[in-house]
Amino acid sequence: MKTFITITAFILVGVLTALFFGFNQTANSIDYDDEQEGISEQVIIRFSHVAAENTPKGLAARYFAESVQMKTNDEVTVEIYSNGEIYQDQNEWEALTSGKVEMIAPATAKLSPLFPDWQVLDLPYAFQTEQAVQEAYEGKIGEELLNDLKRSNAKGLGFWYNGFKQFTNDQHPIIQPVDMDQLHFRTMPGPTIAAQFDAVNASTSELSFNKTYRNLEVDFIDGQENTVSNIYSKKFYKEQSFMTISNHAYLGYAILMNKSFWNKLSKSHQEAIVSSMEETTDWVRRHSIEINDSQIRELKRTSDIQIDVLTNAQRKKWKEAFLPVYIQAEKSISPSLLREVKRIQNHYSSHN
Ligand code: SIN
């Protein structure tokens, strides 16, 4: 009995000593490790996006990261996760607003299920030149759309450019609206995009970007619409026989930061980020055209895809076919935004 009491007492003293020193050790290591001071000054921005690195968005993300690092003397580091490596279309908004990442750059269409006004940027043939798109993104439309985000935990930093969308499919050349009849397309989300395909009797499935290739490969879908840089970098052209240069709508990005994170940044870091954002926007506006152009040259040189370019007369027919989309849009897009689209269209009417 005596031996039992002695052993129990030893074990008890041992456990209490270990617990005491163990806790104390943890507390001390946080309080007194002077290396922690340096770590706490480092700000990391985890930037997740779904596109490839050799695209306008991928290259702009890199440009932005380098600029922020330089302007903050290495105090802020932007870590880029591309190709949907950590978050994809269906969960990147949640990841941003709950603070799992600090930055995302979804295609503007992907905000439309939460913020219906964002559909205005998907109206077919709404903006027919790069200048018209710039006027929308950097003018009244962009301002109103970014304001709309204020009711969420996302802060809109601005817009980045990619390019005009083109149709691809594996059935036959698409030249006239009637050529869309009965084809099945992958789309980004939003009633406006669905209405665009409805108007020409095509059916659609909303699929995430990173699942598109697989769905083309197994022939679940006949085609998709995208910029040349996405068609090239994601190798969609390998599963498609026909591409139509229709320039029927524009694909660009909303650049978003977690709002709680933004509010905690120092004033000087916020200023550096805003300035890097302005420089990157300017860079990607100028370079996105060149990136898409050089990749279509590569497609012509290295692939078998047939590329048809719509003439102005053919484009006129598509614009007529898409008119019902504008009527449907009145149900879900603010009149002030639709008026601004009209104004921009009239302003650039010589290009129509
Ligand atoms: C992207 O460019 O980020 C993806 C666009 C798409 O989902 O088609």
From TrEMBL:
Keywords: Signal, Transport. It comes from the Bacteria. GO terms for biological process: transmembrane transport. GO terms for cellular component: outer membrane-bounded periplasmic space. Pfam families: DctP (PF03480). InterPro entries: DctP_fam (IPR018389), TRAP_DctP (IPR004682), TRAP_DctP_sf (IPR038404). Belongs to the bacterial solute-binding protein 7 family. This is DctP family TRAP transporter solute-binding subunit.
